[in-house]
TrEMBL record:
Ranges annotated as spanning the membrane: 96-115, 138-157, 169-190, 210-231, 336-355
Membrane topology (UniProt): Multi-pass membrane protein
PANTHER family: 15-CIS-ZETA-CAROTENE ISOMERASE, CHLOROPLASTIC
UniProt GO MF annotations: 9,15,9'-tri-cis-zeta-carotene isomerase activity
Keyword Isomerase assigned: yes
Record-linked InterPro entries: NnrU_dom
Protein name according to UniProt: 15-cis-zeta-carotene isomerase
Upper lineage: Eukaryota, Viridiplantae, Streptophyta, Embryophyta, Tracheophyta
Domain NnrU: residue ranges: 140-358
Chief location of this protein within or outside the cell: membrane
Pfam families, per the entry: NnrU
Organism of this sequence: Silybum marianum
Keywords: Isomerase, Membrane, Transmembrane, Transmembrane helix
GO annotations of cellular component type: chloroplast; membrane
Length: 367
């Protein structure tokens, strides 16, 4: 991608560097002290020889960005990427055939090596964790904690891991380790969600089920922004660390945290017992750490570009919009009328109606 420069609103032109970098600002009052903008040592995005006048960095809130990356400046002023942008014309049938094959192989290995009680290690793992305490709350929390440590730990090792074994191999390692632990945690929750002490009983409250159902439904639009590119998830395409900025990211910079909180609150209110509380504490704690860790990793990877995105987004939903840091486009709704969001809608509705099947499958595992 061509090297580019983002100018603040005070300037009307966009120029490109060729050869040795030179300043394009004609104002004689510019401070000629140069400041490298790649203070985060961002390899591949900002080059050490690309410099800007230091007082230009203070010209406006839109910091100048130079570099080669997937986060080149778009015509609508985005420094980050346009999330959920699915271009059907760019899709290859062979890639999706390959994806289907990879998915089938993964599910087969998961069944044989983990789920099947006669051949897999899933039941042994659950029994080992459960042996720590007779309390289902303790087991539930420990399962969540183990998943969180492995998942976030491997995420933190992504940069050195990809350099060591490559992007695709590290994605296989990451998914192959995280997926079985996630399945075990979910299955244990389904099978033991009504164990433990009943703290409250609100299931007979009128309209409550409908309110919680809507909350849970909306939560999935926040929970899965990282799966916008399924081909990368399955390592069919080379996995990348994305700096999303549009769509749900305008509402909150950490939609998975917000979605997880919504899901946990809805399920805990409905179930009303100590196991649900233990699961929610573990999951929300994991995502709070993930939000901090995610910002840290993006700052290392994207440097000043991430600081720009961070300055006009918020963790608390709608906070950046309300205080004027985030300006929504007039056609903002179009950022949601896209295939990935439609897919999430269909899968969420399908998962709701498939609850009896999910419960029956979990019960058969005897975990």
């Amino acid at each position: 991608m061509a090297t580019s420069i983002l100018l603040s609103n005070s300037f009307s032109t966009i120029s490109q560097f060729t050869g040795r970098p030179k300043f394009i600002f004609s104002n004689p009052k510019l401070n000629l002290t140069v400041t490298p903008i790649n203070s985060y040592s961002n390899i591949g995005f900002l080059k050490g020889t690309q410099l800007l006048p230091s007082n230009c960095l203070r010209k406006s809130r839109r910091v100048f960005v130079i570099g080669e990356s997937d986060t080149s400046v778009s015509k609508d002023g985005l420094v980050g990427e346009d999330s959920a942008n699915f271009d059907l014309a760019k899709q290859k049938i062979t890639s999706w055939i390959y994806f289907t094959g990879v998915l089938g192989v993964v599910l087969l290995i998961l069944d044989v090596a983990w789920l099947d009680n006669s051949t897999g290690f899933g039941k042994v793992f659950i029994d080992s964790v459960s042996s720590v305490s007779d309390s289902p709350e303790v087991a539930m929390f420990l399962l969540t904690l183990i998943f969180a440590v492995v998942h976030s730990g491997l995420a933190s090792l992504r940069d050195p891991g990809e350099k060591l074994i490559g992007e695709r191999a590290f994605r296989v390692l990451f998914a192959g380790t995280s997926l079985p632990l996630a399945v075990s945690t979910i299955v244990y929750f389904i099978n033991h969600r009504y164990d433990g002490a009943q703290l409250w009983q609100l299931q007979n409250v009128p309209v409550l089920h409908h309110l919680l159902w809507i909350t849970n439904f909306v939560s999935f639009f926040f929970l899965y922004p990282s799966t916008f590119n399924l081909l990368e998830v399955a390592a069919v395409d080379k996995p990348k660390m994305h700096l999303w900025e549009s769509g749900i990211m305008r509402i909150t910079r950490h939609p998975q945290l917000v979605g997880q909180v919504m899901w946990c609150v809805a399920h805990t209110i409905w179930i009303g017992n100590s196991v649900a509380v233990a699961a929610s504490v573990g999951l929300i704690g994991h995502h709070l750490f993930g939000a901090w860790n995610g910002d840290r990793r993006l700052a290392i990877r994207y440097g000043e570009a991430f600081e720009v995105v961070k300055s006009r987004t918020s963790i608390l939903p709608f906070a950046a919009i309300l205080d004027g840091r985030q300006k929504l486009p007039k056609d903002y709704y179009k950022e949601f009328i896209r295939l990935p969001y439609l897919t999430i809608t269909g899968l969420t509705l399908g998962a709701y109606f498939a609850h009896p099947l999910m419960q029956a499958a979990s019960f058969r595992l005897h975990w």
